[in-house]
Amino acid sequence: MPRLSFTKTSHPCIRMLSATILPYLDMQIIHSPTQLSEQCRTWRKAGETICLVPTMGYYHAGHEDLMAHGRRLADRLVVSLFVNPTQFGPNEDLAAYPRDPARDAAIAERIGADVLYMPTPGDMYAEDHATWVDVPEMGHQLCGISRPVHFRGVCTVVLKLFNITGADVAVFGEKDWQQQAILRRMVRDLNVPVRIETRATVREKDGLALSSRNVYLTPEEREQAPQIRKALLLAQKLAQAGETSVRRLRESVLVYWAEHLTLGRLDYLSIVDPENLAPLSEITGPALMACAVRMGKARLIDNILLRP
Ligand code: PAF
Fold first, then answer.
1. 96 and 195: one domain?
2. Does the model's pTM come out above 0.90?
3. Is the confidence at residue 9, as pLDDT, over 50?
């Protein structure tokens, strides 16, 4: 279990950001979980509903879509911006994760967030934090194979955000299909009174799924990266034409990538039940083809629904 060693106070840059831009924003920037809880309790007492959009920042059009959708779902929109350390493994990109809080704050405000919640690790986790939420059957496969602590960190932080805000509804992206499936299971199993909504993946014109991590790609890798999606679309066509064998569908993608994705290294490519993520050998109903591919410093994920 990783030791948590976070400072109790916010990072000086974040405090400075608040001091600099706060006076110009209609949106509140809140760092303290207690203050956010109080604000949300006041809204709920007044009969207002709350939508939460959890993010790790460095916003692109996919985040904007989640926020804009969230804005329509409830009276109040809370956007959280927190690069959650507990969902990163020891050799992952926590330190390098791209950040631009001032730009993010301007975007969240433009879209109409009432609050941008920007805690530090010390605001979110006590030094001796010891409670974890895990959904091992669903979290220790697909992305969980190479990122063993990832979904435990996601579930723990998202449940904390649900508890702090008491949100009625929360919005997640379908690019992280496994994440939203696991969170739905967590909410069901633990009777968390929140509704989860998902939004379709937003893509570049050439099909590459938008991701904050796309900035890690070199120009050559960026040029090849859309081949990830192209191969998934090929499998979708084969499934529509009647192919039901998971082995053959996987093979078609791997053969395509061997030729067109020479800068990529396969992490995994799996076909699973879209709801419980159980592996399939034959497609008899909607099935999720999900993959992760490493390209240089980036680890890119994508998925597609196959319908026979
Ligand atoms: O999808 C993400 O950006 C993160 O996993 C989330 C849901 C904000 C939790 O840290």
1. yes
2. yes
3. no
Distance 189 CA to ligand 1 centre (A): 20
pLDDT digits (tens, 9 = 90+) for 191-221: 999 999 999 999 999 999 999 999 999 999 9
**Residue 295 is part of a domain; what is its CATH number?**
3.30.1300.10
Is the minimum distance from the CB of 171 to ligand 1 under 6 angstroms?
no
Q: Give backbone dihedrals phi and psi of 198, rounded to 5 degrees, phi first.
A: -120, 155
Assess whether 54 and 146 both reside in one domain: yes
Residue 17 has pLDDT above 70, yes or no: no
Active-site residue 63, yes or no?
yes
The structural domain count of the chain equals: 2
Examine the domain organization and report whether 62 and 136 are in the same domain. Answer: yes
Q: Which of 55, 117, 172 to mutate to test the pocket of ligand 1 (most atoms within 8 A of CB)?
A: 55
CATH number of the domain to which 20 belongs: 3.40.50.620
Q: Are residues 65 and 165 in the same domain?
A: yes
Shared domain check, 217 and 194 = no
Domain of residue 178: give its range.
12-199
* Residue 251, number of CB atoms within 10 A of its CB: 13
